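Schema walk-through. Below, the input block comes first and the output block second. Nothing else is stored per chain. Lengths vary across the set, and this one has 129 residues.
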Amino acid sequence: MNSDTKKKSLTKAELHLMNILWDKGEATVRDLVGVLPEPKPAYTTVLTVMQVLTKKKIVEPYRQGKVNVFKPLMSRDQYISGFMEETRNTLFKGSMRNFLLFFARNEKIDKAELREILKEMAETDGGTE
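--- output ---
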C-alpha cells in the first residue's frame, strides 16, 4: 500500500461521516451530528473525526460566519475506485479476473444478470462481450 493510498483509507466512522457529506455536498459538524442516528456521538467526537479527515486531505473546511463548513475533496466514486483498486491489488494479487469471480460467486450472480452487466459495459464503454 503506497503512502498516498494509506492516507486516503477511511475508518468506519470516517466513512460513515463521508457518506453523509457526499450526500449533502457540504456540512457543518452540527449538521452532521443532526443526521446521525441515536445514540448520537458527542459534537467533539464528530469534530475530531472531521479534523482527521482534513489532515488526510479528504475534506476541506471553510469559514462561514463563526462555523467551519466541510466539503469533500474527492467524490464517492473516486474513493470507491481507489479502495477497490487497492483491494484488487492486495487481496487478489492485481487479478481483475479473480476479483470479479470472487464477487460473481459469492453474490451468486446468475448468468442472465452477468449478460446484462456485460451488455451495459459494452454500451457505456464501447467494449465488446
